[in-house]
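EI: anyone free to look at a 221-residue chain?
SC: sure, send it
EI:
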Amino acid sequence: MLKTKKASLLFDIDNTLLDRDAAFHAYLLDFISRNQAALAEEDMSQVHAEMMVLDCHGRKDRKLFCQELLQRFSGLPYSTESLWEDHMSLPEFVKPDSVLNAMLERLSADYQLMIISNGSASMQRRKLHQAGLTAYFEHIFISAEVGYAKPDTRLFSHALNHCDHASIVMIGDDYINDMQPAMAMKLTTVFINPENENFAIRPDHELSNIHALEEALACMI
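SC: here you go
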């Protein structure tokens, strides 16, 4: 007899399931190393810091990010399109997290696991593959494939059509893109909030990192 699962869990990807900022940090070190000649008159530590700020944790539109980067560092030998092509190597810098993978394997026995993410389908799926996460998820919904991007609730509605349970939990690190639409749709919300950001309307639960999720779920479901 198949085991009845407790709830459907919807996960964001970047800075929720994987440390996207750490991957981008590593990518930038490689990028700056490859472009030292074009950046010769710049302070390299300052270059790295400015590029991290421009990136805005990956939440900024990637075309806009590439345009702003080239405006600030005009000596770089790229067009917007070729810089984006270079940026597509980002998944290679994602590091697997064996503790997270073990937790997801345990959770998959008790919960229906799904992903709801913004971004390029190729980029996001390659990140998941690099981190060894793909196999744990029954459904993966990415904005570029579905046609709607968070915080548009239509992306959430699309995912909900595939949920097997009335009890649905959204887990993410972005208050505007993940928490607000999930709260509007009356989903249970788990905010991955390492910086302890404060908002007037608080999600149902807040965690400093994803590794605390299993224990939190045991208390709430």
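EI: The first helix runs from residue 20 to 34.
SC: 👍
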